[in-house]
Amino acid sequence: MLTLFTTIWDFLLGYVFYYPLLMSYLWMLGAALYFYNRERHDPPFNRPPLLASYPPVSVLIPCYNEGDNAEETVMQALKLDYPEFEVIAINDGSRDNTGAVLDRLAAQHPKLKVVHLAQNQGKAVALTSGSLLARHEILLCIDGDALLDPHAADWMVRHFIEHPKVAAVTGNPRIRNRSTLLGRVQVGEFSSIVGMIKRAQMSYGRLFTVSGVITAFRKSAMHDVGYWSSDMMTEDIDISWKLQRREWEIRFEPNALVWILMPETVKGLWKQRLRWAQGGAQVLLKNADILGQPRLASLWPLYIEYSLSVVWSYTMLMLLVVWILDFIVPVGWLPMVDSPIVPEWNGVLLGATCLLQFALSKWLDSRYDQGLGRNYYWMIWYPLVFWVINTATTIAAFPKAVFRQRGQRARWISPDRGIRA
Amino acid sequence: MSTQTLIIDARHQLNLPQRMLSSTLTAMLWMLWFYLWLPALSLLAWLSGFRAFYQQMIAQPVWLRGPQTFSMYLLTLFAAACALALWARLSQRQGLGCALQQGRTVPLFDYAQHFGANAGEIETGRDASVVVVHHDAEGRIVQIATQTVRHG
């Protein structure tokens, strides 16, 4: 019995150490492969290649209480360097002056259409309503505080032309606000984690999620899957799974840039990460049935990897509890956990891996975001603080997702947008 | 458009103690990180217990555990990467649902039917500059009304 317990304990210790290590190298390898096979052949992002055709595009911008940002966002979207497009701003029953700002802009710009929802409905319903009123087959969706790069549409549309199976193409969000420590760490995070994982997942077959802040969709594919779900905390993860379950393809396009605002307070960051984790857990629960469907075998690795990361978070919590209890209970009652204060070679390996991952990702994204290397100094916070926040939100989010009522409408949570100049 | 003009670096809006704190703490964290790398110079390691330190760093250094450890790491990594790539290739077949839709744009009538909305209202709404959409409690569209806008 004791041997079995020791074996399980050793396995858990090994899992906590080896799982992130293996995933880090898998991501790096996958991202490097993606760069070698696809990205390195591309011209600079501001000189997109000529396309065989330019199908018209509808840019959808759902807005809720975006009075401070709506004008800048819409005006930037109207600067899109693309032959034929319309911009549709959807005011989701905002309580501030968003509606008045959009109406004023609509009177000045014929390419802008404003859709007011009589009552607040949530982002999923806002997007769905906007897509119904969109004239064109390609829907380029961005957030109400996001600034679209003028060349983004060219880069995204090329995938839809290339293959009729492509239902969605997600872009490369870059962070604008870099005043505080939190802002600067997130700049690196969006390269080291978000961008790197998306590149790697492209190499290994399927994407876990598109980025809600910039994704282009094929409208007929959205109709096929019943549009965005109004009860999911993160509509972007959910729609990615809905599309892939119907065997549509989703892709990542690193040249399609959008400039976004992120929280610069710990409270704002916590709320945002908790919502992301809760959305991930909801999708995990909703799609558990895929494991019994060989037809959806291409999604199994994604599902298993996300499940393992949730298990990893809980295992970390357990080890932490045991380590703390070890100071309280008599010696020998609990299994040994090495002191985190004594450095070991494992720590050296993990530390080196982490720094290597940051370096590689910054090099990959430096094509799109100049001077990214200067941000490296601040990245030291990521493994020491952000890992803790992300692990804690995963632990807190899972029971919330389990006990959340199915069908309960997900409403907007206006995030903190950091320091403005 | 220069992407640099989109970046907001308003560090001057933080007061001096805030700026000092974040820079100093970051430098300290780097030192802590280097401590992982240079354990021989770390006083904390010795304070934490010479025996444990000796056991981990000197008696059983990683290179004495044999090159097989690293080769096992590498083998696991490449096996996992190859398995994932192979799995992706074998498992991605074009499915029925997707195949039925490919290359087909959805007629307006189908949209109207799906949303339970009036096709005429949708068409008028698509041509209008400002539209107001009314939903019921379940989020279903009940009315699409257009507003006239005078372009300035």
From TrEMBL, chain A:
GO annotation terms (biological process): cell adhesion involved in biofilm formation
CC annotations in GO: plasma membrane
InterPro entries: Nucleotide-diphossugar_trans, PGA_PgaC/IcaA
Record key words, sorted: Cell membrane, Glycosyltransferase, Membrane, Transferase, Transmembrane, Transmembrane helix
UniProt keyword Transmembrane helix present: yes
Molecular-function GO term, any one: acetylglucosaminyltransferase activity
Signal peptide range in chain numbering: none
EC number of the protein: 2.4.1.-
Keyword Iron: no
Location of the protein in the cell: Cell membrane
Family matches, as Pfam families: Glyco_tranf_2_3
Superkingdom classification of source: Bacteria
Name this polypeptide is given: Poly-beta-1,6-N-acetyl-D-glucosamine synthase
Organism: Crenobacter cavernae
From TrEMBL, chain B:
Residues in the signal sequence: none
Database matches in Pfam families: PgaD
Transmembrane segments: 27-50, 70-88
Record keywords: Membrane, Transmembrane, Transmembrane helix
One of the GO biological process terms: cell adhesion involved in single-species biofilm formation
NCBIfam families: PGA_PgaD (TIGR03940)
Protein name (database record): Poly-beta-1,6-N-acetyl-D-glucosamine biosynthesis protein PgaD
